[in-house]
Amino acid sequence: MRRRVSIALALSVSLALAQAAIPADASAQAPKALRVASEQTVTGFAFPESVAYDPQAKVLYVSEFGSALKPAEKDGKGRISKVSLEGKVLEERFLPAAGEILHKPKGIWVQGDRLWVTDIDVVWVFDLKTRRGRKAALPGVGFANDPTVVKNVLYVSDNRGDQLVRVEPADFLDTGDPKVTRVFSGKSVNPNGLYPARDGSVLIVGFMAPEQGRGIYALGAGGEVKTLAKDLGRLDGVAQLDDGSLLVTDWNSGSLFRWSAPTGKEILASGFKGPADFAVVPEAGGYLVVVPDLVKSELRFVRLAK
């Protein structure tokens, strides 16, 4: 009996030590330094709110309000432009196709040959090859911000409504009407940017008034919302890097910063007036981060070196 207890105890201790040695996320370890190798600003856009990278076509898609900085106005002047990785506009109005209207398109998500974009109270899915699109109404949502897809479920943030909804199936282009359900509301998260984390959760950053700072959160598989960091500012875009650390844009500090649990907040680029939802392009030895400045109507290409 003693031998069995001893073996069981030894196995339990070994398992605990093994589990302790493997962090749940790489951000639990201090990430290696990143430095800004270069910055380039490209002007001439019409209130760009989001940039997404298409790894198949190796191009960027940029959502633009197209008229005034009135994010809830339905004037039919919004568009999505197609831009090269060097900042050249390839097509000023790539989407929507003739006969379809965007008002104030915001967050974009690209996966395969599909592109999703939010537009006030609806979300669109487009076929990037044919440019055919279909929209789905989001009942109870009045300020849809960012979409992201996790396992054929589309998540959409509603910043002003302080809620997150899910749309199933994510690719509803050729299906019946998708099912829209509320994931959470009224948690003082005010979700803006979303990103699928490597551990299966959904990363969320919050945006509120200047004096009401929001933080970084994670939505678990069971619907629970965990706070990773509090009171960081008015946060817009978020993405996770290979090492588990996060890139985030903040309107309060006018910056692009990096965050990890052990190191906290590290500002990489500053001087923005409205740093919004950005794209990360992996490169040899680092990343190209393309940040839209909604207020300045420009894109900044920030090259980060490891």
Task: Walk me through this protein's architecture.
The chain is mainly β and 306 residues long. The chain has one domain (26-305): TolB, C-terminal domain (Neuraminidase). Helix content is 7%, strand content 50%. The strands form six sheets. A four-stranded antiparallel sheet has the order 1-24-23-22, with no helix packed on it. The radius of gyration is 20 Å and the shape is globular.
Count of strand segments: 24
Helix content: under 10%
Number of domains: 1
Tell me the CATH topology: Neuraminidase
Strand order of the largest sheet: 1-24-23-22
Helix/strand order, N-terminal first: HEEEEEEEEEEEEEEEEEEEEEEEE
Q: How would a textbook summarize the main sheet?
A: 4 strands, antiparallel
N-to-C span = 55 Å
Rg for CA atoms: 20 Å
Overall mean confidence score, pLDDT:
92
CATH class placement: Mainly Beta
How many helical stretches? 1
Determine the CATH superfamily: TolB, C-terminal domain
Low-confidence stretches: 1-24
Percent of sequence in beta strands: over 45%
Structural class from helices and strands?
A: mainly beta
